[in-house]
Amino acid sequence: MIRHPFSFQMAARPIRFTVMIEKKIFSRLQQGKTLALVTIIDKSGSAPRLPGSKMFVEQNGSLHGTIGGGRLEFMAHENAQAVALGAVPGISEFDMRGTGTDMAADMVCGGIQIVLIERLTPDMAPLFALALECFEGGAKGAWAIDITNPQRPERSFVDLQNADPQYNAIDFQTIMRSRTTRLVDLAGQVIVVDPLPKSGTVVLFGGGHVSLEVAELSASLDFEVIVCDDRPEFAGKGRFPMAKDVQVIDFTRAFANINQKEELYLLIITRGHSYDQEVLAQSLTTPARYIGMIGSRRKRDIIYENLRKKGFTEEDLARVHCPVGLSIGSETPREIAVSIIGELIAARAGVL
Questions:
Q1: How does the average pLDDT of the chain come out, rounded?
Q2: Residue 180 confidence (pLDDT)
């Protein structure tokens, strides 16, 4: 942790994914608009949002995103609009510890949040285009914001596949794995390192009713969606317009056209137990972040026993979430999808 007057012990929890806000910012900058971006860069104690949470404000006061609502967000909103209109950017400290039983201030979470407010101008559109190109291309990168002089923050983007040598001293790989926004001290130069990880790709094996509901919800939450089925009528772009890719596959070669990577969230929802078992066996050989399979406990136990006979270990099987989804009493396809999405959110946030 750096030694800095506005620095606190970072929470060892993941940031929330913010790729969509970068897309919105890029769109506004392309339109010639000047904005103010508000980013939580550090915290101490209990606070409504984590470091890396963002919102931006247009000159007319329009607000996009949230850093937690309440009095904190109201004050940050006012400050940000002023910055968008020409006030000096900078860092603000919001003390939410309150005093006694006084609730009037509406800032009694019990902690302190440190917020950076930057002015973003249309000439910065190419910088955001670079970040989004990195994101869409499957690579990982991070924002590096020099706040040595908080009134003149300097934002740059670092593509980890082609990083500028000036950042060699920053352990980007560790920061990306931790998914946390961090403050780094480079011999007196204070840098906010704000990771831009992929939001994750949900791969649905099976294109039935539940998969359709899961696909719609996943896409609305910034996941990429890939749908795979061996039946053309259940694996068409017309059925899944929200999907990045729809594939008609042979379940015995489920990953033939899927890049096996860590940011995969695999959901096995085929039309038959034998297909589920086949896809699960292949899924267990991938580095996927999450593997879920629909079905009863009895079905699970039978499939697990069959896989043990094939050489899979208890450690392998422990990776699988089955029955898939949170236990919320869901019955309809939409309700089941909500329970599954809750589990995917928890997995993406690193709390599952």
A1: 86
A2: 77
Q: How far is Cα 341 from Cα 154, in angstroms, rounded to an integer?
A: 37
Contact 339, 213 (CB under 8 A): no
Look at residue 278 in the predicted model and tell me its pLDDT: 97
> Rounded to whole angstroms, how far apart are CA atoms 176 and 164?
17
Domains of the chain and CATH, by start: 19-196 (no CATH), 201-349 (3.40.50.720)
Alpha carbon of residue 238 to chain centroid: 27
User: Which alpha helices (H) appear in the chain, and where do they start and end?
Assistant: 19-30, 70-84, 125-136, 172-178, 209-220, 273-283, 297-309, 314-317, 333-349
State whether residue 88 is helix, strand or coil: coil
What pLDDT digit, counting tens, does each position of 289-319 carry? Answer: 999 999 999 999 999 999 999 999 999 999 9
Q: Is 33 helix (H, G, I), strand (E, B) or coil?
A: coil
DSSP state of 256: T
**Alpha carbon distance 67, 55 (integer Å):** 6
In whole angstroms, what is the distance from residue 192 CA to residue 62 CA?
26
